[in-house]
Specification:
The complex is a heterodimer. Chain A is mainly alpha-helical. Chain A is built from 39 helices and ten strands. In chain A, helix 8 links the parallel strand 4 (about 160-165) and strand 5 (about 175-180). The two termini of chain A are about 20 Å apart. Chain B is mainly alpha-helical. Chain B has eight helices and no strands. Chain B has helices spanning about 5-25, 25-30, 40-60, 75-100, 110-130, 135-140, 150-170, 185-210. Chain B is globular and about 50 Å long.
């Protein structure tokens, strides 16, 4: 079967996407879960252990507190309370910490330090898997056993005010609630006032058992202006006064009830030095946890260095404090100081309940749990506990009882610690079999792509795909049988859960058949190569096969980038790699230009300087000739007319263009500092977004939109030109409506709206332009007119995407869009056309610039930098599919715009009919090399210290990038098909 | 092409390497607390001075391009001034390139500039000595098949290896090892120096190895 190399590449990438998906499913392990997950049936609590005689205490112990208030302040870092900021801005809290009846701790949050997984960790006590971050947007109802669910089942009345993530996580759990949205990051007063305004009423009424307040303001301040902003101090004082109000109200209420109340102050995650969160730096994981209750002893003393606990410990502590069963999936241990004041028997009972729950979880998740040190400790302590109860029931000497009790207690605490630790390490269990299957598919596809380079990049750009060769079909069946046997053996013998075994057998067989078919294809290509290689001296395929410096740079750059992915620092600072490569590319281009320009007079062989003007008439005549011939012809043809064509300003522009591009890149680089090491450096983006520089931002945004319009409109039809102008105007109106930029006539801050109407106005034009473009493309296919219609159609699709990007980009990122268009224009006019690069080189350049622009936008290999607000543009509420699409497009706008420019440029050139196919093949190849290499790297580094904080997010980014590549290749192939059917 | 030429080339190169080694050890006799990493800027100045001096001396003694005609004193002076201007121009150009590559614009200006100076010392000064202030000749030497003598060939190799060294020297900067030599621009200057030395060592060997294949137009 003969296939165009573009189609072949698109198929390969599609298969690769499947392989990566299987790999990802195996790599991101399912979190530690209790098997009885779905049923919320209350099991009878474990009776107290006792040796010999049976204990009479089989019920759950009674609650310790009557009312619980949880004040969760988003992004509350530990030093905001315990550090100098706390002393300065939170005097009341500091007083409580130092002298009041309270226990304070530093609670360590496990990465990913993002709100939803953290809330889950706080309320279920389990460690949410990494994939939960990706579902952060989605936040479906929490199905796991958790404190809120238990409290509701026990008939407690729960009130909630704050971040609406809670309401999504716990639907119908709250008697009264008011959700605030974390969508408008620039708003940090209203969100918190919406919470605080309920306080007076609620505190007075007192008809609740549990009150949860989630304040978002601090997090918003952090995102906008960082942890050292003066706004932080004001917000902390506000929070301090809120805490004081609640505490005094609780104290006054306490006189009426028998039991004391509990006030919990905690943060869900910290805040990095740049004000963001998501990773695992010390600033992000350390949060304060303060438990305040009159039940605790006042112990004056220096509390500057609080004890460290895990964030997951809160769930177990709350459950015991409220007299509820501990959530089944909790890996946390009871925070012991809370129960310290109770009688010895109760203390032991609490610890026993906790250890029993943990050991059950261990039994369900670890096959060889009996050898686990934690389990052994548990057995020992349970036995000691039993003996102690026996003594207690026999009413022995109290001093002996006490001494023995402390011993049991210590034993229990050790058991708790070990159990909790071994459960936490359980989270990092990989599903190796699925990973292997995915890797096999990806590697086979890559090998196939690499082997078919010589065939695919020939002039005809077609290659044989061997599918029906009979010898290999026998080999295929053998392979298939062997693989199926392996599959059955692995799946029957595996003790841990495995995703791939859980698939229906038809799907598994399909994947196995795919793997063996790919292997057969590789084998046949290899044999063909050997057969052809043994033939004596075939005709030279490339007359000028010497590689230019540019080609060398591209190969070495790609290899170097792939190798750099093995180091965590290079993954964190990947933007530096791309900036470095793009800069070097520009210098190499300038060297090429200078050489071909200055050595032109000497008649050197390098002279290959061409300019399109005065030559356009020759294009159709040359069209049917093959690429290399064309080049030679051109060269002879051009050398005479070069000097008159190249004159004046044109010449200078050609010479200056690499430097112009370099300068643009330097400006863009200082717009968004990203990465980790230098992320705290001041950048233009932060300067522009601060509220003092709104006017400058407005001018810049307007200017960028203007530049965008002038650069995009030249290729459009008049109708879409008008639509583009109106659309860009709409973008500015949208940004003005949501309060990012100002109109010149509007001086003060108006009320902020969501800008729904403006955004939808722009969407209409985007769809209109895209529709016109598609219509033109279809027309060009049907009527078979000149390819001008097709070029215009492609340009219209491109301009539609530009308009969408303009709408989704934050205003300070609009210069990125303008510069991207500028660089594309300059390179098209002054570099690619005159220097006649071939399709492969142009593709690689587009890919590199696309990658660089991905980082110029402010993205990084950290999940926290994804601009989620793009998913809400023009939407009233969260609608999953459009929001995901918009966020993905907003994030990958740079690469997508460069890729669509590539398609337009190559099909408008039309000097060689196979350019688009070559481009598609190269794009697929250069896109799949990093993914394949990275999959192997990650597999070998899976026990690396930074696997969760650095390598895993990058893996998700790579997977997403491959999806984008697949889409680009599919589009490219479709365009190629239309041009071929026409011809 | 004779073996004696290659031998002369080798000796001159060994002298250059020796001057770099001297620039590391001699200053510690005169200056207190001298070390490459801590007083990096001083070392840069000294190294640049040494290499420039040895290049000039070698140029005057060896006279590789003996074909140049006798010329008047004024011609020589203008030539010398032109060379100085070219050198300064190259320093500023390199500085601009470094900033475009991402070097801080305002902070560490002196460091960046001295890096530009040392890179110019390794690349521009040999070019000026050998080819004179003649841009066309430079372009000829640095394009494919453009060299006309072993001196130009070795110049090509050392210059390219200096650039490559400086380029590779930037790679360890993002790594989080927190070593003193990862600070801007130390790794780059060290890279350039190592590249230059490597070029000096390899170019005679390479020319000797390929002496059969090498044919120059003017020889």
């Amino acid at each position: 079967m003969r296939l165009g190399s573009g189609t072949f590449a698109a198929c390969c990438v599609a298969i690769e996407v499947l392989g990566v998906a299987v790999f990802l499913r195996g790599f991101f392990p399912a979190p530690v879960r209790s098997s009885a997950r779905t049923e919320h049936r209350a099991e009878p609590p474990v009776p107290e252990p006792s040796a010999g005689s049976s204990s009479n205490w089989t019920k759950l112990p009674p609650p310790l507190f009557s009312k619980v208030v949880i004040v969760l302040i988003d992004a509350l870092r530990d030093d905001f309370v315990f550090g100098s900021k706390g002393v300065k801005f939170m005097p009341y809290t500091t007083y409580l910490v130092e002298k009041g009846a309270s226990h304070s701790f530093v609670a360590e949050a496990k990465p990913p330090t993002v709100t939803m997984p953290r809330i889950k960790a706080l309320m279920t006590g389990s460690l949410p898997g990494f994939v939960d971050v990706v579902r952060n947007l989605n936040s479906p109802a929490l199905l796991e056993d958790n404190v809120i669910g238990q409290a509701k089942a026990a008939g407690k009345r729960i009130f909630f005010y704050g971040d609406e993530t809670w309401i999504k996580l716990f639907p119908k759990h709250f008697i009264e609630y008011d959700g605030t949205t974390s969508f408008f990051v620039s708003d940090y007063t209203e969100v918190d006032n919406n919470v605080t305004r309920h306080l007076d009423k609620v505190l007075k009424r007192g008809d609740w058992d549990m009150l949860i307040l989630h304040y978002l303001g601090l997090d918003h301040i952090g995102h906008v202006s960082g942890p050292h902003s003066p706004l932080i101090g004001r917000k902390l004082s506000e929070m301090d006064s809120v805490l004081m109000r609640i505490h005094t109200a609780l104290l006054s209420k306490e006189r009426e009830t028998l039991l004391p109340n509990l006030l919990v102050l905690c943060g869900d995650h910290g805040m990095s030095e740049t004000g963001s969160h998501g990773a695992s730096s010390t600033e992000e994981v350390n949060t304060p946890l303060i438990l305040i209750s009159s039940a605790f002893e006042r112990k004056p003393g220096d509390m500057r260095h609080p004890k460290r606990v895990q964030q997951t410990d809160l769930a177990a502590t709350l459950a015991i404090g409220l007299g509820l069963p501990i959530p089944k999936d909790s890996v946390g241990s009871l925070i012991f100081p809370v129960v310290e004041g109770k009688p010895m028997r109760e203390q032991l009972r609490f610890l026993h309940l906790n250890t029993v729950q943990l050991s059950k979880l261990l039994q369900e998740n670890v096959p060889s749990y009996e050898k686990d040190p934690g389990f052994e400790q548990f057995k020992v302590s349970e036995k000691m506990h039993g003996n102690w109860i026996k003594l207690y029931l026999e009413e022995n000497n109290s001093e002996v009882l006490f001494n023995l009790g402390t011993k049991v207690l210590r034993q229990y605490l050790i058991a708790l610690k070990t159990l909790s630790l071994s459960l936490s390490t359980q989270v990092a269990q990989y599903d190796i079999y699925s990973m292997m299957v995915g890797t096999a598919v990806v590697l086979e596809v890559l090998t196939l792509l690499l082997l078919s380079i010589p065939q695919a990049l020939r002039r005809k750009a077609e290659l044989d795909v061997p599918l029906s060769s009979p010898v290999f079909s026998l080999f295929f069946y053998l392979m298939f049988l062997v693989l199926s046997a392996i599959h059955i053996i692995v799946c029957t013998s595996a003790e841990s859960s495995c995703y791939f075994c859980g698939l229906p057998w038809l799907a598994a067989c399909g994947v196995m058949a795919l793997i063996s078919a790919l292997l057969c294809a590789i084998m046949s290509v290899l044999t063909k190569m050997f057969v052809r290689g043994s033939l004596p001296s075939k005709n030279p395929a490339h007359p000028n096969s010497g590689w230019s410096e540019l080609d060398l740079l591209m190969v070495f750059g790609t290899v170097g980038h792939v190798l750099s992915l093995g180091a965590s620092s290079f993954v964190e600072e990947e933007h530096q790699t791309w900036y470095f490569l793009v800069n070097t590319l520009c210098l190499a281009l300038s060297q090429e230009i200078y050489r071909s320009y200055f050595l032109r007079d000497d008649g050197e062989p390098q002279c290959c300087f061409h300019v399109e003007q005065g030559f356009a008439g020759a294009i159709p005549a040359l069209q049917d000739r093959t690429g290399c011939d064309t080049r030679e012809q051109d060269r002879v043809h051009m050398s005479s007319s070069l000097s008159e064509v190249l004159r004046g300003c044109e010449k200078w522009m050609v010479l200056a263009s690499p430097w112009l591009i370099l300068a643009c890149c330097r400006l863009l680089r200082s717009l968004n500092q990203t990465g980790v090491q230098w992320a705290h450096r001041p950048d233009l983006g932060h300067w522009l977004t601060s509220s003092d520089h709104k006017a400058e931002l407005s001018v810049l945004a307007a200017l960028s939109l203007l530049v965008t319009f002038t650069l995009v409109q030249r290729g459009c039809s008049p109708v879409s030109k008008a639509a583009l102008a109106l659309g860009l105007l709409g973008v500015y109106c949208y940004r003005a409506a949501i309060g990012n930029v100002l109109f010149p006539w509007q001086q003060d801050n108006r009320d902020i709206s969501k800008g729904i109407i403006e955004a939808r106005f722009v969407y209409v034009f985007i769809l209109g332009i895209l529709f016109t473009g598609t219509k033109d493309l279809l027309k060009s296919q049907v009527i078979a007119a000149d390819f001008k219609i097709k070029t215009v159609g492609l340009w219209e699709i491109y301009s539609g995407l530009v308009l969408l990007a303009a709408l989704l980009f934050r205003p300070h990122n609009l210069p990125v869009l303008a510069f991207s268009l500028l660089i594309q224009t300059v390179m098209t006019k002054f570099i690619w056309k005159p220097l006649r690069h071939d399709a492969a080189e142009i593709t690689v350049m587009h890919y590199w610039f696309g990658q660089a622009f991905f980082y110029f936008q402010g993205n990084s290999n950290n999940i926290a930098t994804v601009d989620i607000s793009a998913g809400f543009v023009g939407l009233d509420t969260y609608v999953e599919i459009p929001a995901m699409f918009l966020t993905a497009f907003g994030t990958y706008a740079g690469p997508v715009l460069w890729a669509s420019h590539l398609v337009h440029f190559l099909s408008s050139e039309a000097s060689s009919g196979s350019a688009l196919r070559h481009a598609c093949f190269c794009y697929a190849l250069i896109g799949s090399i990093p993914v394949s290499a990275y999959i192997i790297l990650v597999t070998s580094l899976r026990y690396h210290l930074f696997i969760w904080s650095v390598f895993s997010p990058k893996l998700l980014y790579e997977g997403m990038r491959l999806l984008v590549t697949a889409a680009v290749c599919a589009f490219c192939t479709a365009m190629d098909q239309t041009s071929r059917t026409k011809a | 092409m004779k073996d004696t030429d290659i031998k002369r080339l080798l000796y001159t190169h060994l002298l250059c390497i020796f001057s770099i080694i001297l620039s590391v050890f001699i200053p510690s006799f005169f200056l207190e607390n001298f070390s490459i990493l801590e007083t990096h800027l001083t070392w840069l100045c000294i190294c640049s001075g040494f290499v420039t001096a040895i290049n000039l001396v070698l140029y005057l003694v060896v006279k590789p391009n003996a074909s140049s005609k006798r010329s008047s004193l004024s011609h020589k002076v203008t030539r010398f001034l032109k060379c100085c201007i070219y050198f300064l121009m190259s320093c500023f150009t390199f500085h601009i390139v470094f900033v475009l590559y991402g070097a801080p614009l305002i902070e560490l200006v002196l460091e960046t500039f001295l890096f530009a100076v040392i890179l110019s010392t390794f690349t521009t000064i040999p070019c000026l000595c050998l080819l004179g202030p003649n841009l066309k000749a430079w372009l000829r030497v640095f394009s494919r098949n453009g060299v006309t003598s072993i001196w130009e060939n070795s110049l090509q190799i050392t210059t390219i290896s200096s650039f490559a060294g400086a380029w590779l020297g930037a790679l360890p900067i993002p790594l989080d090892w927190e070593r003193p030599w990862q600070v801007w621009p130390i790794s780059c200057t060290l890279g350039a120096t190592f590249g230059y030395v490597a070029g000096l060592v390899t170019s005679p060997l390479w020319i000797y190895w390929n002496r059969k294949q090498l044919t120059y137009k003017n020889n």
